[in-house]
């Protein structure tokens, strides 16, 4: 009988232990006996190499095959299979590295991976990156560099290091698409294609006799004419999630923090100019130029409606007109979108001044669960090198491009028909430089002049840009009160802005606006702004050094 | 033979059934009771970086997260939405399958009955993601079929903004839930009706009862225990969405910034402000509040049902 009791107890124990085994994962680095960077602390090295062209770069010396499980935290990412396209094959050929990619399917997936200590070897993300600024979760890159690729410290831009260095003195990633001043001032360079753009239909403007479009007031007048002439047409369709360029025209930054005339940082929607913006947008809504439904669309529904050819003006990223015009042409729809290349005035004043924190976008982290941090940092060194940057952002030289006298990319014939799944140009750029992307974008005017209005738009915006890297440091750290306040303010703004814009009268819109501001104060906007200002002043000191 | 020996003898005789039951208990223990240990973090300052051990090592913060939720500026709005949506769905979706089952039972043409039953339960197998896409196609104001029909019949002058109006959100949830789940729950009530002793109906016919009277005095009283058990289960899952259990899916997929004032419910708020931000302690505290309310509801409804009709779950 005792045996039976024992076997029953054992059965339950086994079940519970098996389940417990599912929840935890020992560090693979320990499993295979390889040492972690921390175990070898103190073995940091220095190097005399001062050029990315050196044959002695660390990545060039370790090219045995290695595979990294990689998590890409963007559900919209174009590729999630390694080794089927030209670029990924070439990376493996040159470095020995291949990736086993998992693409995010849910915005909570990464949080769960962190909590369960089941992070893969590499993580590429721009969401809640503050969670990775923790030596228990990710390797500080500076430690890995000092130990395995010491020459990188000589080759990296000190400002880039400063941009990414956290208060604990380490940097855990080097954000993509960073531009230093020299790179930004390169005439080939352009702002990100993700920049907002405002578009109108050129064909309808001609039909209306090309009325003047110099101001937001002119725009209202044009909308009125369109509504009269084409009552069934959607007059203005903003992208449901993108920064609104009309807001930018009024000198506003949405939720992003801004610096006032006294040098104080504020939460974006705390800008008093928002009252006028909301009044304007509310007018568009009440006059029937903008529908409430446009805020309810999913991005793919926005795209579907744009392609129908029944929209007069729209706003989204810099590439909207090129993408949609292509669809119009392919489907013989007689329509043509053009970007508005003017800073429209409001009440006689032009305020368009895009602000860029200039520190970059997404981060490639090496979690502590990485099974081979040495090869990981060497792979990062390759990606960071001009060779890796050109390969991932431009393609294979001779096959996908040649450089002309202006150092712009000349694409071979038929290149525009190739798919990204064949070429692999773009998606594997985990350490992309801003200049590399800028060159690829501006070269689009050479290879595909018919669909290159984004280049004109970005060139126009570049002239107005203001760069302020210290602003990148005002974001509160995870798990702090200020972080929670920031999250709640973002949620408040996201919902309240729509309620304000869709108010039945201007008076009601202003009432709702005041309620939003009062709620923001209740949530703790003051406390957040105090934190932001302290962080901003600290960051300014860093850049003055 | 002492009592222990008797027990093992009985166990030996029922070995197969006992093992089946034990496997069920084991499943519940592992997947329902062991995870409850995690509720501890509702009272702690759990940080993601501390991983699973952090459940036990992180500092106690008492009712901090509960207090934060209760003092949230949206608290009453979220509670109102959760309660109203749940009640609307119970009130409107619960009786429909009963009525439909009775109606189907009265249909004499076997082919028609089968067709109606199959057609009504097939939507149950369509996921809410697909249903939300279908609703967009049918209801949008640009080229939605419903708006075009209403305009063609001259019932409206301009398209109605079903998807972007707080006024239509709750009716849209209730109607789509009825459409999707009615047929599925009808099966249970049809099975209960099939189990009614036919002699009861025969006796009623002999007594001169008409069709309506037989429904009222034979069919309904006979399926009352089934109705009560299903009602208790639905009430227990009141905040989850009652029979269909679809509150989260509907609010998440059909909710948008325009109808947020009526679509934000406890579950979507937990996802947005808790899980998506990595605030697991906060999310657990909100989830626990909902669980406690749901448990209270199931206990009250079971007690009331037992008092009123003598039928209860436990």
Automatic annotation (TrEMBL), chain A:
PROSITE patterns: PROKAR_LIPOPROTEIN. Keywords: Cell membrane, Lipoprotein, Membrane, Palmitate, Signal. Residues 32-42 have a biased composition (Basic and acidic residues). Residues 26-59 are annotated as: Disordered. The keyword Nucleotide-binding does not apply. Residues 1-20 form the signal peptide. Residues 43-53 have a biased composition (Polar residues). Pfam families: SBP_bac_1. InterPro entries: Bact_solute-bd_prot1, SBP. PANTHER family: ARABINOSE-BINDING PROTEIN-RELATED, POLYGALACTURONAN_RHAMNOGALACTURONAN-BINDING PROTEIN YTCQ. This is Extracellular solute-binding protein.
From TrEMBL, chain B:
It holds the Pfam family BPD_transp_1. The chain crosses the membrane at residues 21-43, 78-100, 121-139, 182-203, 215-239, 280-300. It is a multi-pass membrane protein. CDD domains: TM_PBP2. This is ABC transporter permease subunit. GO terms for cellular component: plasma membrane. Belongs to the binding-protein-dependent transport system permease family. InterPro entries: MetI-like (IPR000515), MetI-like_sf (IPR035906). GO terms for biological process: transmembrane transport. Its main location: membrane. Residues 79-301 form the ABC transmembrane type-1 domain. Keywords: Membrane, Transmembrane, Transmembrane helix, Transport. It is found in: Cell membrane; Membrane. It comes from Paenibacillus mangrovi.
């Amino acid at each position: 009988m005792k045996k039976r009791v024992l076997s029953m107890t054992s059965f339950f124990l086994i079940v519970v232990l098996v389940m417990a085994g599912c929840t935890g994962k020992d560090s693979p680095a320990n499993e295979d006996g390889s040492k972690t960077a921390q175990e070898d602390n103190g073995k940091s090295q220095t190097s005399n190499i001062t050029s990315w062209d050196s044959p002695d770069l660390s990545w060039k010396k370790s090219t045995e095959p290695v595979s990294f499980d990689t998590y890409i935290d963007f559900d919209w990412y174009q590729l999630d299979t390694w080794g089927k396209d030209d670029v990924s094959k070439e990376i493996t050929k040159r470095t020995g590295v291949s990736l086993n990619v998992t693409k995010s399917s849910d915005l909570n997936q990464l949080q769960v991976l962190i909590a369960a200590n089941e992070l893969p070897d590499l993580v590429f993300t721009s969401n809640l990156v503050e969670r990775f600024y923790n030596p228990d979760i990710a390797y500080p890159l500076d430690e890995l560099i000092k130990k395995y690729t010491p020459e990188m410290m000589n080759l990296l831009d000190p400002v880039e290091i400063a941009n990414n260095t956290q208060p604990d003195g380490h940097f855990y990633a080097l954000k993509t698409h960073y531009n230093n001043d020299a790179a930004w001032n390169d005439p080939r360079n352009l702002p990100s294609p993700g920049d907002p753009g405002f578009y109108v239909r050129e064909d309808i403007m001609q039909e209306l006799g090309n009325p003047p479009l110099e101001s937001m007031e002119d725009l209202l007048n044009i909308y009125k004419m369109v509504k009269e002439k084409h009552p069934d047409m959607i007059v203005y369709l903003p992208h449901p999630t993108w920064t609104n360029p009309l807001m930018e025209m009024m000198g506003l930054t949405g939720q992003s923090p801004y610096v006032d005339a006294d040098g104080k940082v504020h939460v974006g929607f705390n800008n008093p100019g928002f009252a006028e913006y909301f009044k304007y947008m509310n007018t568009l809504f009440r006059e029937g130029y903008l529908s409430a439904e446009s805020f309810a669309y999913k991005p793919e529904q926005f795209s579907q409606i744009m392609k129908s050819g029944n929209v007069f003006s729209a706003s989204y990223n810099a590439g909207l007109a090129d993408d949609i015009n292509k669809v119009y042409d392919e489907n013989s729809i007689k329509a043509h979108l053009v970007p508005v290349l003017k800073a429209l005035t409001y009440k006689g004043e032009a305020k368009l001044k895009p602000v860029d924190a200039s520190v970059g976008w997404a981060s490639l982290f090496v979690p502590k669960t990485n099974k081979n941090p040495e090869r990981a940092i060497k792979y990062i060194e390759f990606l960071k090198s001009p060779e890796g940057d050109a390969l991932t952002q431009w393609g294979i030289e001779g096959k996908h491009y040649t450089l002309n006298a202006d150092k712009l990319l000349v694409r071979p014939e038929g290149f525009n028909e190739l798919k990204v799944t064949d070429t692999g140009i773009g998606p594997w750029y985990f350490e992309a430089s801003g200049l590399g992307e800028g060159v690829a974008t501006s070269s689009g005017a050479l290879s595909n002049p018919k669909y290159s209005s984004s280049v004109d738009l970005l060139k126009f915006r570049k002239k107005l840009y203001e760069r302020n890297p210290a602003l990148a440091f005002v974001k509160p750290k995870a798990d702090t009160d200020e972080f929670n306040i920031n999250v709640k303010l973002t949620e408040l703004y996201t919902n309240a802005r729509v309620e304000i814009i869709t108010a039945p009268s201007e008076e009601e819109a202003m009432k709702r606006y005041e309620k939003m501001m009062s709620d923001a104060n209740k949530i703790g906007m003051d406390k957040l702004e105090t934190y932001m200002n302290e962080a901003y002043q600290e960051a300014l000191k860093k850049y003055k050094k | 033979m002492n009592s222990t020996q008797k027990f093992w003898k009985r166990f030996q005789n029922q070995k197969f059934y006992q093992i089946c039951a034990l496997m069920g208990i084991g499943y519940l223990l592992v997947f329902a009771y062991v995870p409850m240990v995690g509720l501890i973090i509702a009272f702690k300052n759990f940080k993601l970086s501390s991983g699973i051990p952090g459940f036990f090592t992180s500092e106690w913060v008492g009712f901090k997260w509960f207090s934060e939720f209760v003092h949230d500026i949206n608290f009453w709005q979220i509670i109102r939405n959760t309660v109203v949506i749940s009640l609307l769905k119970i009130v409107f979706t619960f009786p429909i399958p009963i009525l439909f089952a009775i109606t189907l039972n009265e249909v004499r043409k076997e082919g028609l009955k089968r067709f109606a039953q199959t057609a009504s339960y097939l939507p149950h197998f369509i996921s809410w993601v697909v249903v939300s896409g279908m609703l967009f196609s049918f209801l949008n104001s640009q080229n939605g079929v419903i708006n075009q029909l209403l305009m063609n019949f001259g019932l409206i002058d301009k398209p109605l903004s079903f998807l972007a109006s707080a006024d239509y959100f709750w009716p849209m949830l209730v109607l789509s839930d009825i459409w999707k789940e009615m047929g599925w729950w009808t099966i249970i009530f049809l099975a209960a009706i099939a189990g009614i002793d036919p002699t009861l109906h025969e006796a009623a016919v002999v007594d001169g009862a008409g069709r309506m009277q037989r429904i009222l005095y034979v069919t309904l009283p006979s399926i009352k225990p089934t109705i009560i058990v299903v009602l208790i289960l639905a009430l227990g899952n009141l905040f989850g969405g009652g029979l269909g259990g679809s509150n989260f899916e509907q609010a998440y997929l059909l909710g948008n910034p325009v109808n947020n004032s009526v679509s934000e419910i406890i579950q979507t708020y937990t996802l947005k402000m808790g899980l998506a931000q990595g605030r697991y302690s906060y999310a657990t505290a909100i989830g626990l509040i909902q669980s406690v309310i749901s448990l209270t509801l199931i206990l009250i409804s079971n007690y009331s049902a037992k008092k009123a009709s003598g039928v209860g779950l436990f």
